[in-house]
Request: fold
Amino acid sequence: MKWLWTGWLVCALAAGLFGYMAFVEAPAISALLGGLALPDSTLLGYGEDQARALYTAFAAEFAAAETAGRQSAAAAYVALHAGFDLAVPPLLAASLAFLAFASAYAGRSQARPKRPVSIGIGLVLALAFTYLACDFLENAVADAMYGPQAMKAGFNESFVFVLQVLTRGKYLTLALAALLILALWIVRWAGPRGATPEAGSSLDQR
Reply:
């Protein structure tokens, strides 16, 4: 189908931006914090002790940055969320939706997919939107906990559980969506292939 190249382009763009953010931007901030991982990259999120230790590292680095007159890790973290991490979640969600639809329509006729496949696609869409909400809310809570303003206000333990739930929800929805997409593609290649529109028209001419 002609629209497929657009979807693959979105997937490639999402992968490229995610890779740059995960392997270039985030490690640079972590390096300023003595190698501590950012909350965004921890699969199970941070408990209170870990979150407090990370805040202590942010606060110490913030004080050193102010003395040196340079950008702090806290400011860089907020800038990351306002930059690459503002674009990546929608692109990832769109990629999940595309991969689900492509499993049913790519290289096939416009025939309506079977009911289980339609349900699977619907579940992927729901998970993609849930992931998107979790990721954006996670960024907002993380900024409130570790941004420059938080360095002056002090550690807020009431945000710890919320951030942990959002982080876990983000990765859980991504994992479930990926498994469903894998299942949809397995069903696609295991089942009989429908005739393409071109093949159908050539048969009619005969």
